[in-house]
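Side project, low priority. Logging it here so it doesn't get lost.
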Amino acid sequence: MFRSLFRASVERRLVSEVPVGSCLSGGVDSTTIVGLMSELLNDEAPDAASLRGQLKTFSAVFDGDPIDERAYIEVAVESTGADTTYTNPTSPEFIDELRDFVWHQEEPIVSTGPYAQWCVMRSAREQVTVLLDGQGGDELLAGYVALRAIGIEANFVDVLLLQTLITFLLYFAPTPGASGVAEVLSAAVMSVYLPRELTPLYTIIWRLILSWFTIAAGFFVFSSWVREGLRGVEVEPTDCAPKAVRLP
């Protein structure tokens, strides 16, 4: 039942008069979508005509870095015969493009993951107009911790402390970043402790911890380093910015 619904969902999103492709990481979500796109293409499904006879995927890789998922991506590529475009975001490029990236993002972020996605979308724009993606699969299928809550009584503070410990330990687990393993394990453990009536409160608090608190703590710890790094960096003049960034 689920597979047929999933296939139908992917097929409907191939309905397009412009070229369609897909993002592809080493995780289960996007890999499954790409696999179904390939299946629909091989079955000559009418809606797969938007693929223009060739499945195109777009991936971010980080050569030589432990978080690189190229090996997993290549397994999916070999299996589906996809025409893959790789982009390799680097720290110098991130610094050079920071101004444009912040302008497009328009909200605080807790990691550079969105920049990698930004680079993937930019490379995809040169070949396709519509992109499928696996974003959101965690919430729908495995669920973040708050979404896996069930009605078992537990001390709320203990829940937060245990979740913090689990997150810390899983950070060092030898799993690919986008595989979803950390989220699934964390959700499975925490679902035993979190009562349903605390779900809204827990969601808000944990979101603050993951985002705003992390940003505030990071700024406090690294503010002097960031200031030193930005001292004297030249930027393009705009209507609302000085010609150069000079921090005290």
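Brief comment: Confidence is low (pLDDT under 50) at residues 237-248.
Revisit when time allows.
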